[in-house]
Amino acid sequence: QLQLVESGGGLVQPGGSLRLSCAASGGTLAYHTIGWFRQAPGKEREGVSCISSSGGTTNYADSVKGRFTISRDSAKNTVYLQMNNLKPEDTAVYYCNAIQYWGQGTQVTVSS
Fold first, then answer.
1. What are phi and psi of 74, to 5 degrees?
2. Which residues, other chains included, contact 66 with Cβ-Cβ below 8 Å and sequence gap of 6+?
3. Any idea what DSSP says for residue 63?
């Protein structure tokens, strides 16, 4: 059974950067589209970005376009989300998803 573990979250000031990782075990991510989602307190979970199995196609929510970059490293069985120019409204728990599997999430807090 595929297991996903997110890491890389933390507290950062506005304008700062973080790189989230989604590491998989118990299976390979290579054949799957992988998505990053986030959920802020009191809000529904929303899609942030996704990347195709080949890595050739990526999509971003309008709110993060030009600031976030998704990538994947098949050798490491890991997907990344590079987040630059972070804003307070990016504060949320970030989750990665592959088919029906979800990680436990990693907290990102953007605050001065």
1. -65, -35
2. none
3. T
The reported pLDDT for the residue numbered 76 is 96
What pLDDT score does 13 carry?
A: 98
CA 49 – CA 38 distance, rounded (Å)? 10
For the beta sheet containing 18-25, the strands, ordered from the edge strand earlier in sequence to the opposite edge, are 3-7, 18-25, 78-83, 68-73
Handedness of CA 53, 56, 60, 66 (dihedral sign): positive
Phi and psi angles of residue 88, each rounded to the nearest 5 degrees, phi first: -55, -35
The contacts of residue 10 (CB under 8 Å, 6+ apart) are: 18, 107, 108, 109
Using one digit for the tens of pLDDT, what is the confidence trace for 76-110? 999 999 999 999 999 999 999 999 999 999 999 99
CA 56 to centroid of chain Cα atoms: 17
